[in-house]
Amino acid sequence: MSNARNTVVVPEHQLKALGTKAFENLGLPPADAADVVEVLVLADLFGLSTHGLSRLESYGERLEVQGINARAHIQVASPAPAIRLIDGDNGVGPLVGMHALRAAMDAARDNGVGIAFARNSNHFGPISPYGLLAAEAGFASIIGSNATTTIAPWGGTDARVGNSPIGFGVPNPAGKHFLLDMAMSVVARAKIRNALKAGTRIPDTWATDAQGLPTTDPKQALDGFLQPIGGHKGYGLALMVDLFAGLLSNAAYLTHVKSWVDAPDQPQNLGHFFLLINTRFLGSTAWLAERMNDFAAILHDSPPAAADRPVIQPGEIELGRMAAQRANGVTLDADVLALLQRHAG
């Protein structure tokens, strides 16, 4: 079914089947393809279409030039009871991410906490799908990944810091989980590109020009660098994510991370970290549900500044979209469906 906006609505099970077949045709074993699609379909269910099955295009291009290893042999080492080290063997990022998530769960299940450090990986999708899977299994989470450099060091004039995402999740056994997923830039470059197309200025907090000075000109901004959230504090947070995801994982970090756009046929050696806490060691599911529902109610009860925009906690919009799309089908760009069908054919 399609509509006037050149989108289509596809049932979740059909989307998963198409996605899995597409990645199998790109060389992945069936179980590995299913892991990748698990993450990307959750992204589409959440409404994060830029990080969903549309990624088949960029992942597929790199698989075809062997910049990503379709037959990755992922290895997990346990140097300590609560630590897991994952070597992704240059596999598709969501595949490495799912292995790391399961390894961290395995460590936290018995030890109460577990951390997995992954290396030799690639772009692993958005963080919130992993946070959801962890929350549904009873784990609170802090998850991060490093990224290709697009941000200048605070006060610097060239790109040496990645727009590294970090996410936090806390389960609610009888309500909506808390899920926060954020990158380190004030806005995505797409917003600046849209301003350029529209011929409008941008706030001077979004980006700098090529000399590292704040600008309201979208063209100068696209030639310059993204601004981190919170100024120097966001810069520090971006470095912390890279230290955990890249440096401690023995992956690439900062300018050692290869750009998949500039060098699609070369391994990126991205790194991720998954820190999980087994909430069942802290109290019963009833105890946690009561506290989480009270936590959300305190926020919801704040009178909204705009009547049509009630106060929410992070994750509610995405979980609402997921429930609606599971019931009614997933809205997808027609171009993405065509891409899926071409690869699945």
From TrEMBL:
UniProt-recorded Gene Ontology molecular function terms: oxidoreductase activity
SUPFAM superfamilies: L-sulfolactate dehydrogenase-like
Keywords: Oxidoreductase
Keyword presence, Cell wall biogenesis/degradation: no
InterPro entries with a match to the protein in the record: Mal/L-sulf/L-lact_DH-like_ah (IPR043144), Mal/L-sulf/L-lact_DH-like_NADP (IPR043143), Mal/L-sulfo/L-lacto_DH-like_sf (IPR036111), Malate/L-lactate_DH-like (IPR003767)
Family per record: Belongs to the LDH2/MDH2 oxidoreductase family.
The protein, known as: Hydroxyacid dehydrogenase
Source species of the chain: Bordetella genomosp. 12
